[in-house]
Amino acid sequence: MALAKRERMLVIGTVAVVGLLGLDQYLLTPVLDAEDQLQNERQQIVSDMTRAQNVMSDRKVAMTRWRTMVRSGLKSDPAEAEGQLLHALRDWAKESGLVLSSVKPERPESKDTQLREIQVQASANGTMEALTKFMLKVQQSAFPLKLSEFQMASRNESTNDIALQIKVSTLYKGTAPAADSTGKSSSPTAEEAK
Amino acid sequence: MGLLSGGSFLGIALSANALQLAELRGSGSRYRLVHAAVFPIGEQRLLSEPGVLGKELHQFLKAQGFSARQAVAGFPAQWLMFKEKSLPDASAEATAAMLVLQAERDFSMDPPSLSLDFLPGIPVKGTQRVILAAAVRDRIASVQRMMLAAGLQLRGVTSTSLAIAGVSGGANVLYMGENGVECLAHDDQGVRAIRYLAPASAVKGGGASPGVSGELRRAAFLSGAKLVSGELAIWDDLGVDDKIAADLFAGENVHVRRGTTFPAMESAGDAGEHSAGSMALALCAANSKWMGLDFLHSRLEPKPPRKFTSARVWAAVGVLTALAAFGYLLLDWRQNAAELTELRQKRDDMKGSEKSAKEFIARVKLATNWGDNRPNYLECLRAVTLCFPDKERIWASTLSVRDDMKGIMTGGASDSKTVLELLDHLKNNAAFADVKMLQMRESEGKNAEVTYSIAFSYLGGG
Q: What's the pLDDT band for B298 if we cut at 50, 70, 90?
C-alpha cells in the first residue's frame, strides 16, 4: 500500500510524537526522577553529617569541661569518693569549731550507671558563727558536693548552741559500659583516659 | 581534480583503425612527452571484442615502455553529435535540467542509447548558447571495457579536438588525425561548432583535392564568421605538407598557423610531432578542466539521490545530540549515585561516633548542672535573718531548708504583732515566695509568749 507524501509525513510525525512520549515516559522521566531522589537524599545526608560534625565539636568543649571536673576531684572509685567527702566534713567541722556528732553515708540506687551519688547525713552542734563557717566551706568545696538538706535548731534558747543536721552528696564516675559498634566508648571515664 | 597534478598520464586518441597513444610525465605545471605510439586496431574490433583488444593494448603498452595507468580517451568528431542550443541564462544545474528535457527531441537516436553532455557558453543579453553533445553509449562502454582489460584507469571520455582547443588556450582548431580532418570554431560566446570535415585520405599523400579544400572552406564558413576572419591553428598528426595546409584557406581572411606544442608542455621533440591529439588528452588526464566535455561524468547525468539529505543529517544530528544528552544524564546520575553511596557510608560511620558523643555530652551536662544547681543555704540564712525586726523580741528556734529551697521556720515572740511584722517582711522580700503562716499560738501564763511556724520558698537574689 503506497502512501502519499502527506500521509507518509503524518505517519512519520505520529510515530515521532508517540516515540518521544514513550521515551519521555519510560526513559527520561524515570531518570530525572531518580536524579531528584538522589539530590534529596544527598541533602538529607549532608544535613545529617553537618549535625554530626556539630555534635563532635560540642564533644570537644564538653571534654575540656570534663577534664576540669576530674582535676577538681571527681573520683571514679566510690569508696575513694566517700572517703574524700567524710574527710572533708570532718576537717571543715574541726576548722569551723563544730562538733560533728554523727555521719551516715548512703549509696542510693541510680539508673545512671556512669554518674552516681554518695549521700551523707551528718549531725553537728556548735555556735552560729561556727555553723556559718562550716556552711561556707561546704558551699565552696572544690570537688563535686551538694548540700541537699539543711536543718538547724536552737538547743537552748538562752545560749548560742545550735544543732545542725545536713544531708550532703557527692558524685563519682560509675562503671564504663561496653564499647559501641564503632569501637568507641561513650563513657566519660574512657574519654578521660585519652 | 582541478589543479595540475604530478605523475604519469596517458592520452588515447581513438579512431576507427588505430589508437594514438602518448604518455606524459611531469609535476606542477610542466609536462614532457615520454612515450608516443600508434596502436593499430582492426575495423569494428572496438565494438565487437573490446576485452581482447584491451589485453592486446596492455601487451603493446608494456612492450613500448608505457607505465601510466590514468588515461583519458578522445573520440573523433565523426563519433559525436553536436547540437547548438540557445537557452536563458541560468545556473549550471538549471541549464542541465533544461537540456535534459530538450535532449530527447534533438537527436534521432533512442535517448537511452546516447550519453549526453554539454559545453556551456558565455551568456550575452540574458541568453546563453550551449553545445549539446552526444556519444553512443555502447561505444563508450566498449572503451571502458577495453581500458579495464588493459589495466588502465579511464578518467574521462571527451572530444579530441576539444581537448586540443582546451590545452592550447581556446583557439580555432583544425585537427588532422587518423580519423580524418575536423574543425573546432570559437566565437565570443565560446565554442561555436565541432565538425568532421573529411577523411584522412583526403589530405594524405600528394595534397588536398580541390573538392576537399572547398568542403573545408564551406564547413569553416558554416562554423562561424569569427573563424573566417580569425586565427586558425592547424594540428597535424598526419604529416600533411605545410603548403597544402596553407592552401586550404588560400584567398580567405584567415591567419593560419601550425600548432607545435602546448603551453603546459615542454618541447615535445620529434616524438610528439604527430601526437598532438593524444598529448592533449594526456594533459586532460592531468587536469580535467581542459576536457570541456566528459561523457563519463556528464553534467546531464541524473545525480544519484544523496544518501545524506539535509533532513536526514539534521535528524541524525538531533538523535546524536539527544543520545549525547541522555548519555551525559545517565553518566551524571551514576556519578551522583556513586558519590551518594560514599557519603552514605561516611554518615553511617559517623553515626556511632555521634551517638557516643551525644551520650558523653549529656553526662557532662548532667554533672555540670548537678554542681551548678547547688542551693545556696547561707544566702537563704542571711536573707531570713535580715527579715527579723531589729528592736522587737522575736527569735527562731528551728530552721529547715530542703534542696528545693522550701523551708519552714519556727520560733517565738513577745507578741503576735511582732510575728506578723516578720511575716510581712518575708512577704515583701522578693527573695521569698509562697510565704505562709502555718500556725501562731499564744501561750498562757505569767510570761505570755507567742509561738509561730512560717513556710516559705527561697528564690534567691533578694
A: confident
Amino acid at B352: G
Provide φ and ψ at B417, rounded to 5°: -60, -40
Q: Would you place residue A45 in the very low, low, confident or very high pLDDT band (cuts 50, 70, 90)?
A: very high
Q: Has residue B369 got a pLDDT over 50?
A: yes
Contact A148 B402 (CB under 8 A): yes
Model confidence at B268, pLDDT cuts 50, 70, 90, reads low
Task: Pick A42's closest partner by Cβ from B340, B400, B403.
Answer: B340
Distance (Å, whole) CA B290 – CA B162: 8
Distance from CA of B325 to the nearest CA of A (A): 11
DSSP run (H or E) holding B336? helix B310-372
Q: Where are the beta strands (DSSP E) in B166-214?
A: 172-177, 180-187, 190-198
ipTM of the complex: 0.72
- Rounded CA gap, B329 and B325, in Å? 6
Q: What is the C-alpha end-to-end distance of chain A, expressed in Å? A: 88
pLDDT at B376: 81
DSSP H helices in B195-275: 210-223, 225-229, 242-247
- Name the strand (E) or helix (H) holding A28: none
